[in-house]
Amino acid sequence: MCCRLFLRMRVPQSPDRTDMDETSVPAATRPRPVAGFRWYICGLLFLATTIAYVDRGVIAYLEKFLETTIGWNSIQYGYMTAGFQVAYAIGLVSAGHFTDVLGTRKGFAIAITLWSFAAMLPGAAHSALAFGVALFILGLGESANFPACIKTVAEWFPKSERALATGIFNSGSNVGTIIVPLVVPVLTLTFGWRWAFVATGATGLLWLVLWLWLYAKPEEHRSVSLRELAYIQSEREERVASVPWRRLIPKRETWAFSIGKFLTDPVWWFYLFWLPRYLQGTFHLSLTQAEAPVVGVYVISIAGSLGGGWIPAAFLKRGRTVNFSRKTAMLICALAVLPILLAPYLHHVWLVVGLVGLAAAAHQGWSANIFTIPSDTFPKAAVASVVGFGGMFGAIGGALLQVATGYIVKATHSYVPLFIFAASAYLLALLIIHLLTPRLEPAKLAAAHS
């Protein structure tokens, strides 16, 4: 239902910004337009992100069950999830450049093929080490998702719609984590836990068929009308054929995005990998009893994905600058996270769900805006590379927090230090982003034409 909603989404079309007449195009080459086709492409990105979060969420939801079935402790689990994020970090820095070089269509197709098979591998695992290896490979494959999605948004949307498009596809992360507690217990109890990994992993191969069938660049796509193409390209940007790493890495804009990701991405990974365990352990919930609370958190968080994209768009329509619009939205999200400090002191599961859900929604709103920084400040040819580089730092931060969480939980049986970090990370990140990019202007890059 959610997938169909996004694929059939209609956004009011902007006024025609060109004098081009489709009837002037020869009939043999005239495209067969579909109104607002860019939103269908956004729907594909939403589906891919949903699948990615289903694949990585299965092990998080089954962790307490597998702890006794396979045999591991919180420290080993921390290292396993850290292994996923180390691979994610390695993959991100190369996946972004890989996507820029190969193009979105080929790069994304290769990545989802790799991660789909990797997601099925835990179904054959018999030890913590085997699970760790499978998660490592999964991290390598899934690392391409966000660089490819952000690059696609930069290719298919004008700047005024990018935060909204990013928020829509990024909401797939919420929907994926909602699907996991609804589907995984049924698969596990009906077919066994191994088939839960196989069934969810195979969905990526179905998406691959859709991607290869539907995707092309907007200027090459027969379903894009000349009016829509003119709108997509209406906000002219500097055309750069390629940007080598040596010109990207020294830029303050690169580091603003990277440090922001380093500080805030680990919070989302903490929710993803540890929230089911926290709720099951703290409130003594069984596998099926944990379904509703986990679903509740991520249902609430969907509002953040969409709201985080809507807030800056509303400011932009009122004539405010990109700098004001993005940073104000990020400040609102950073403040909305603060109540999570109370979570470890509450003794009712649904009060905790409300606070964590609010914080998760704020994170998603934050993500919808921080992910637009590369496309706001860099030419399209460099967007995936910058997203990959910054995402690498986010994954490194996530890996460090995963290991730290394992030791903290094992030694203290307390999550208080982790909720303190979760509450404070966003304001600190926003301060650093503002100091490095006070005006959020395009980075000054000399073109390196290939």
Structure commentary:
74% of the residues lie in helices and 0% in strands. With 450 residues, the protein is mostly helical. It has helices at 2-7, 37-71, 74-102, 104-120, 128-142, 145-156, 159-170, 172-191, 193-214, 226-232, 245-248, 252-282, 291-317, 322-337, 349-370, 373-377, 380-412, 416-436. Helix 2 packs parallel to helix 4 (104-120), helix 8 runs antiparallel to helix 13 and helix 14 runs antiparallel to helix 18. It is built from 18 helices and no strands.
Topology:
Elements: H1 2-7, H2 37-71, H3 74-102, H4 104-120, H5 128-142, H6 145-156, H7 159-170, H8 172-191, H9 193-214, H10 226-232, H11 245-248, H12 252-282, H13 291-317, H14 322-337, H15 349-370, H16 373-377, H17 380-412, H18 416-436
Q: Whole-number radius of gyration?
A: 21 Å
Helix content: over 70%
Task: Give the CATH topology.
Answer: Growth Hormone, Chain: A
What is the number of independent domains? 1
What's the tally of helices?
18
Keywords:
disordered N terminus; 450 residues; Growth Hormone, Chain: A; globular; single chain; mainly alpha
Short characterization:
This protein is mainly α. It has helices at 2-7, 37-71, 74-102, 104-120, 128-142, 145-156, 159-170, 172-191, 193-214, 226-232, 245-248, 252-282, 291-317, 322-337, 349-370, 373-377, 380-412, 416-436.
